[in-house]
Amino acid sequence: MDERLDSRNSRIETLGQMGLQQFAPYLMNRIMGRYNATLRQDLRRQGLTVPQVRALAVLAVGDGMSINELSVYTVIEQSTMSRTLDALEAQGLVRREACQDDSRTRNIFLTDKGREEFNRAWPAMHNAFSEMFRDIDDAEYAAFVATLQKILGNIRKHNF
Fold it and tell me: Cys bridge to 71: 10, 81, 89, 102, which one at CB 3.0-4.6 A?
């Protein structure tokens, strides 16, 4: 075990002793809660929800995923993702196609209309992102992202 972690665990016995402001999961939840609340306000005018835009965003980067993969990347439960995709499909923003390798699996693709809709949502996402990282220089941002990737690697349950 890492000595730093071992000594940290022996020093900090309770959340009360540690404090919420030093508990990274709490801080990450607050950050994402604020980010999502900001997006929710902006996206409401566009007629989209945060889960819908998360799905469009992931598909804009990696089109043709299964529902399971999309659920993992968007951090949305599969049942919620299915309902989200139903709504997006009804709006003509995504389409589902049978997987060539496994007919039981359906892959999800953005339509041209879906890509246009995501492109309309992107400025709000980028503005919220830029606001979060205001006054954080490139080196701090790179270190932060590297740390997050390391943490994700520690807890990842999927190979993607």
Answer: 81
